Structures are given as C-alpha cells and as structure tokens.
Amino acid sequence: MIRLPINGLSNGDHPIAITVAVEQVEGIFPEFVGTVQISGMLSKVGKKIVLELVASGTARLTCDYSLEVFDEHIEATFSLAYLQDTELYLRQPNQQQRIEDDPYALRLLREDDTFVDITTDVAEELSVRLPIKRVAPQFRHMTFAEYARTVLGDHVHVAASDAPRTDSPWSSLEQLNGENRT
C-alpha cells in the first residue's frame, strides 16, 4: 500500500518522494517489475488537500514484432483532490462508488483520517499508460512490413501494414445475395 500521512499536517506545500516495490502496489498490471517511484507535491490549505504526483516504473514487455523481451520506462502525471469534512463524508456513504464513477472528482475524508491511500490511483494511472503496440526500441522506426522483409528477405511478399485497404470491411457481407439475408 502507498499511504501518505496527513495527520497534523500544516498548511503549505510538502514535497513527496516515495519508492515502493511493485508487489506493494495492489492492482498494478503484472508487466511492471522492480520498484515504483512517486514524487510530487502535497499542498494543504485549510481542509483542502491537493496532490500533484508523478509516478514512474519499469514495465517488462514483449515486442510484437520480434517477440524479444525489453524494459520500458512508464511515467504518469496526475492530480488528486481531497476535502477533510467528517459531516459531509458521513452523508455520502458510498464514497468508493463515487470515486470509481469519476476518479478525478473531489474526494472526501474524515477530519480524523491519518493518511491518504493512493495505491489504486498509482496502479491505474501507470497501467493505463502501458503501450498498446509494444515494439522494441530498435524496431520503432519501421513498420511491421519493413521488419518482416528484413527478417524473411525480399522473396516473401508482405503487405504494407499502413497501406490503405482497397476493399471495404463489409465487402464479404455485400456479396451475399438477397435470399440469404435475414
């Protein structure tokens, strides 16, 4: 768990620098290895707390082209806002559902809370920043067709992956005759 202490915190800006093992970040995707670093600023004004954070970690990914394993630095910048108000907190019993519906909404805390748990936020922010197309750094300058030609040679025909399609995605359906339609 990643907990930031807020008990007895004075008004003003407070720097944050935390390093935790990936195993302690519950809910983070299994691609992450090693440690997660969190840095930023915790600002408190009265009953309001604002966190401006940068979380970073290393993800071990498999290249979509060559199937080799490589490490990629992943970084996420995000903000969280809290309000310490016990009465309002008690009037809103389903806080967790509210946060799930809108993770960037103002979050309520009890005035006697001693910490803020940011574990889920760090896990989600880093996990959604994993690349969809996972290509090793040495192959990022080429398309898959170019990569395939370098590995397989020019005697194999590989269609360019970025070439526009000549047929419609519906072409096979358009070829159906009227009597087979439902």
What does this structure look like?
By secondary structure, this protein is an alpha+beta fold. It is built from five helices and seven strands. The longest helix is centred in the last third of the chain and has 9 residues.
Give the tally of β-strands.
7
- How many helical elements? 5
How do the strands line up in the largest sheet? Answer: 2-3-4-5-6
Strand content: 35-45%
Class based on secondary structure composition and strand pairing: alpha+beta
Give the biggest beta sheet: 5 strands, mixed
Average pLDDT taken over every residue:
83
**Percentage of residues in helical conformation:** 10-25%
* Uncertain stretches of 5 or more adjacent residues: none
- Please give the alpha-carbon distance between the first and last residues: 55 Å
